[in-house]
Amino acid sequence: MTLLEVKDLSLTIEGKTIFKDVNFKVSKGEIHALIGVNGCGKSSIASVLMGLISPTKGSIFLAGEDVTNVSITDRAKRGLTLAWQEPTRFEGISVKQYLELSGKTKDMIQIRNALNAVGLLPSLYLSRKVDKSLSGGERKRIELASVFLLKPKIAILDEIDSGVDYIAIEQVLETVKSIASKGSVLLITHQEEFLKIANVATLICNGIVLRTGNPNEISKYYKYECAFCDDEERRKNPLEEFLNVTG
Ligand SMILES: Nc1ncnc2c1ncn2[C@@H]1O[C@H](COP(=O)(O)OP(=O)(O)O)[C@@H](O)[C@H]1O
Ligand SMILES: [Mg+2]
User: What is the mean pLDDT of the segment spanning 52-68?
Assistant: First the structure.
């Protein structure tokens, strides 16, 4: 079952093409990686999917329904959630209050489970304040815990690894799998390593989808992404080009 579908989605801001004719589908239970180098348009796609910016062209479907002109709140009600690349700080409130609010539950067993899932000890973190005293990686993990609690139909996770150390990252990836098992995940990343937990991957460069497919295959192309993305002719035949590059 397709939970999210994007058709010919394009965005131009002040004459600059941010992304163009983007197409992909995310099915139930799936982790779909949207992978590409910095500045290729991933976060802009996330903003358009969530409804913060209107696309210049194209459509967005949630569970088969066209939501291209639907408000952010209504998209959220339909089960779409976005974890930001730069999580907002709720200055002053405790981690417990933050998780109750954004995870929409007061069940302390679930809240503790969510913190444990992302590798943060509830006894150490529940009463901490959500403010500058938390590191970037801790904030990211707390935000991921709130997505885990929400059990969204579709979670868009934008660069969930920023600031997260290499030990915690394994727990973060396990949490992503768990979120996907109850819904689906669009995993936005520039990290090739994350492809290992994805079922499908879409490779994007300069706002253009180069290909969608098996994450192992996409991983091979990723390194040569920049060699193709400026050259329309070479992009038409990335496999031959890839074989040329690798010899
Ligand atoms: N509001 C905007 N006005 C002009 N350029 C923008 C705007 N938002 C993003 N961009 C540009 O669009 C490109 C894609 O940005 P972004 O979506 O953040 O990329 P990514 O998340 O893949 O790193 C970048 O070159 C960025 O500078
Ligand atoms: Mg980004």
Answer: 97
Q: Ligand 1 within 6 A of 40 CB?
A: yes
Given the structure tokens 């194209």, which residue do they identify?
58
Total structural domains within the chain: 1
DSSP tag of 3: E
The percent of residues in the chain predicted with pLDDT above 90, rounded, is: 73
175 lines ligand 1 (CB under 6 A): no
Atom of ligand 1 at shortest range from CA of 40: 22
Ligand 2: centre distance to CA 38 (Å)? 7
Segment 68-96 shows an average pLDDT of 86
Cβ neighbours, 10 Å, residue 59? 14
Radius of gyration of the chain (CA): 18
Of 18, 82, 156, the residue with max ligand 1 atoms within 8 A of its CB, to mutate for a pocket test, comes to: 18
Please say if the pLDDT value at position 57 is more than 90: yes
42 lines ligand 1 (CB under 6 A): yes
Q: How far is the CA of 59 from the centre of ligand 1 (A)?
A: 20
Which residues fall within 8 angstroms of residue 14, CB to CB, at 6 or more apart? Answer: none
**CATH number of the domain to which 170 belongs:** 3.40.50.300
Return d(Cα 12, Cα 236) in angstroms, integer: 23
Q: How far is the CA of 163 from the centre of ligand 2 (A)?
A: 14
State which residues form the domain around 233: 2-246
Q: Is the confidence at residue 247, as pLDDT, over 90?
A: no
Q: Quote the pTM value.
A: 0.92
Read off the pLDDT of residues 163-183 as tens digits, 9 standing for 90 and up.
888 889 999 999 999 999 999
